[in-house]
């Protein structure tokens, strides 16, 4: 990906000051790296050229440069510029201003969104002492704000490219591609860290995690995704600072969870999250169950969650889609099983006990990560269907097959079986049933009917007699 890389890194190291900040960026000319227009999104190039044409500076930054240098196909393209969000917005009719905490512009091309942000200044300094840039003349508290815990609540103070690089999270995310001469600018020695497969936070780790605790999650995400190690000083404060995640809005953590566990390296990332004591702040109930060692004949929580994540990883590897509700249904199933048992032991019948359990688990979870209703409803359906799939007699199997969540519930069932839950061949039965011709389907149903194999079953079933209207009127309940 890079040629003459070691020499470049040696030169770069010489440019560092004692604070580990480069005096000037290391510039890698186009002949020394393999990033060409062919690797870039044509839409991102359009955005860069339009901004440059209007007289602004504009660079590609972050994940797209990092991933390309590592040899991974970039997931999306982020642009950074010295134009303000309003100026960017006025240049693109297909754009919209988004965010309050971090204002930026989304430029939309069909399904692709190019995120355009404005160079940020470092706001660790008191705003009254902030360096004077044209835009900063009008600096007001509405542009920058911190919580009492030091967490950045708003970060909308514009700055220069050097300042922008210093306030990015990791060294390998502070690489800028200049489309004018196709050079890459490395402000924080990110290339050397890529070479050493290291994740290194820019600046003082404690200060940077305090400003934004989500950076701890991002560090783990990149460790999982890239297979890199956390540089020791970057790793050191995480366990003791993990609790700061309690101050992050649940909606933001929900988005992070999807990126952490739903992007192909779920198993490794889950293990790292637990190792660094972060998982507890995302899924407190699940974490408590895993730590307690609780298991039952029909569920081994750790095996089940790992199996679910592994299946999700494999699906992603195969280019198949995965649904966030499925991931969440997996992660919360051990809690649902535990609560269900508790409600049943209090005398509730199975189905109401399950509904109560689901409600309780979801209510507890949304204090940590939000779960939009469009996800919680299918999660409940998947859980509910686990209790309905064993009951296949009569017309039930055909009705279940038509259920909009049948496929997800069936996949869920297979994961339960794969993780050691003994369900008497239920997964294989449904597999056969789905693909069998109609006459064989009837055969399968009749074999699965418990009343056939146990002649007493029918007799034992208490028959519910419908009350006649006359009887209803006489009943003392009415
Ligand atoms: P990917 O998109 O592949 O998940 P990414 O690094 O591009 O990875 P984004 O969330 O798209 O991640 O962010 C784009 C860039 O913005 C990052 O590379 C980083 O430079 C900067 N950034 C994102 N989040 C933070 C943060 N919490 N603190 C500081 N800088 C951040
Ligand atoms: Mg990105």
Q: Supply the CATH architecture of the largest domain.
A: 2-Layer Sandwich
CATH superfamily of the largest domain: Beta Polymerase, domain 2
The percent range for helix content is 40-55%
Chain oligomer state: single chain
Structural class by SSE content: alpha+beta
The radius of gyration is: 28 Å
**Spans where pLDDT lies below 50 across 5 or more residues:** 9-19, 125-140, 470-478
How far apart lie the N and C ends? 80 Å
EC number: 2.7.7.19
Region (Disordered): 125-145, 439-478
Catalytic activity: RNA(n) + ATP = RNA(n)-3'-adenine ribonucleotide + diphosphate
Biased composition (Basic and acidic residues): 131-145, 440-457
Task: Describe this structure in a few short sentences.
Helix content is 49%, strand content 10%. The chain has helices spanning 5-14, 42-53, 63-70, 85-91, 161-166, 190-195, 205-211, 214-226, 232-235, 238-241, 250-261, 266-275, 284-292, 301-317, 324-345, 350-365, 373-388, 396-401, 406-418, 426-435, 438-448, 450-453, 455-460, 469-474, and strands at 26-28, 58-61, 78-81, 95-98, 104-109, 112-118, 144-146, 152-155, 175-178, 183-186, 198-199, 229-230.
Explain what the structure shows.
With 478 residues, the protein is α+β, with helices and mostly antiparallel strands. It has two domains: 231 residues, Beta Polymerase, domain 2 (2-Layer Sandwich), CATH 3.30.460.10; 169 residues, cca-adding enzyme, domain 2, CATH 1.10.3090.10. It contains 24 helices and twelve strands. The longest helix is centred in the last third of the chain and has 22 residues. It is elongated, with a radius of gyration of 28 Å. It starts with a helix and ends with a helix. Bound molecules: adenosine-5'-triphosphate and magnesium ion. The site of adenosine-5'-triphosphate has 11 residues, from α8.
């Amino acid at each position: 990906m890079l040629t003459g890389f070691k020499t470049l890194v040696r030169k770069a190291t010489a440019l560092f000051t004692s604070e580990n900040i480069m005096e000037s960026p290391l510039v890698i000319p186009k002949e020394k790296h393999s990033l060409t227009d062919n690797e870039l999104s044509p839409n991102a190039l359009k955005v860069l050229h339009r901004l440059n044409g209007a007289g602004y500076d504009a660079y590609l930054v972050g994940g797209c440069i990092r991933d390309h240098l590592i040899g991974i196909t970039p997931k999306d393209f982020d642009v950074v510029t010295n134009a303000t969000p309003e100026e960017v917005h006025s240049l693109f009719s297909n754009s919209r201003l988004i965010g309050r905490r971090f204002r930026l512009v989304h430029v939309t091309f069909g399904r692709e969104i190019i995120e355009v942000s404005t160079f940020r200044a470092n706001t660790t300094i008191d705003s009254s002492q902030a360096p004077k840039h044209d835009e900063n003349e009008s600096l007001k508290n509405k542009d920058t704000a911190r919580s009492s815990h030091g967490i950045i609540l708003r970060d909308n103070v514009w700055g220069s490219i050097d300042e922008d690089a210093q306030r990015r999270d990791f060294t390998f995310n502070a690489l800028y591609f200049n489309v004018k001469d196709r050079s890459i600018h490395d402000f924080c020695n990110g290339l050397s860290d890529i070479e050493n497969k290291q994740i290194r936070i820019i600046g003082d780790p404690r200060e940077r995690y305090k400003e934004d605790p989500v950076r701890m999650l991002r560090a783990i995400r990149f460790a999982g995704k890239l297979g890199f190690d956390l540089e020791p000083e970057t790793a050191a404060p995480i366990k003791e600072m993990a609790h700061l995640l309690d101050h992050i809005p649940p909606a933001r953590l929900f988005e992070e969870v999807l990126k952490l566990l739903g992007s192909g390296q779920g198993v490794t990332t889950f293990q790292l999250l637990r190792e660094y004591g972060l998982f507890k702040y995302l899924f407190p109930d699940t974490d408590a169950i895993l730590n307690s060692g609780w298991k039952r004949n029909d569920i081994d929580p750790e095996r089940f969650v790992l199996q679910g994540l592994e299946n999700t990883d494999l699906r992603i590897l195969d280019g198949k889609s995965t649904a966030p509700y499925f991931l969440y249904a997996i992660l919360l199933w051990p809690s649902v099983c535990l609560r269900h048992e508790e409600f049943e032991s209090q005398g509730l019948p199975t189905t109401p006990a399950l509904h109560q359990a689901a409600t309780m688990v979801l209510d507890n979870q949304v204090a940590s990560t939000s779960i939009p209703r469009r996800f919680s409803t299918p999660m409940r359906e998947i859980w509910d269907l686990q209790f309905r799939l064993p009951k296949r007699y009569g017309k039930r199997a055909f009705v279940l097959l038509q259920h909009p969540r049948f496929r997800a519930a069936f996949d869920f069932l297979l994961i339960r079986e794969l993780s050691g839950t003994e369900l008497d061949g239920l997964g294989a039965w449904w597999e056969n049933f789905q693909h069998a011709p109609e006459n064989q389907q009837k055969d399968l149903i009749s074999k699965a009917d418990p009343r056939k194999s146990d002649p007493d079953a029918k007799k034992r079933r208490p028959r519910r007699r419908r009350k006649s209207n006359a009887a209803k009127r006489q009943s003392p309940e009415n």
